[in-house]
Design brief:
It is built from three helices and no strands. It is mainly α and about 80 residues long. The longest helix has 26 residues.
Length: about 80
């Protein structure tokens, strides 16, 4: 059951990233770009979570997941703070 939830979270993040990217292409609002990039990173983080806990349970990828999450959220915070126009 947990495996399905990991995949559903990944699919949801990917769907959000696609919708935000499409909206950015239409409106050119920069906040949509940063939000789309954040959700794309969260998609990758969820995929890495699935790989870590389901496909390779004997290999610990917690540090890689943490670094990816930190980079993704830092990118979003940068967009919120420094690129607010």
């Amino acid at each position: 059951m947990a495996e399905a939830i990991y995949l559903l979270c990944a699919v949801t993040s990917l769907g959000c990233a696609i919708l935000l990217w499409r909206s950015f292409r239409q409106t050119r609002a920069r906040l949509l770009l940063w939000s789309g990039l954040c959700f794309a990173g969260l998609f990758l983080n969820n995929v890495l979570l699935f790989v870590d806990l389901v496909m390779t349970p004997n290999i610990d990828l917690a540090i890689a997941r943490g670094v990816l999450a930190l980079a993704t959220l830092s990118l979003f915070i940068y967009g919120l703070v420094f690129d607010a126009s």
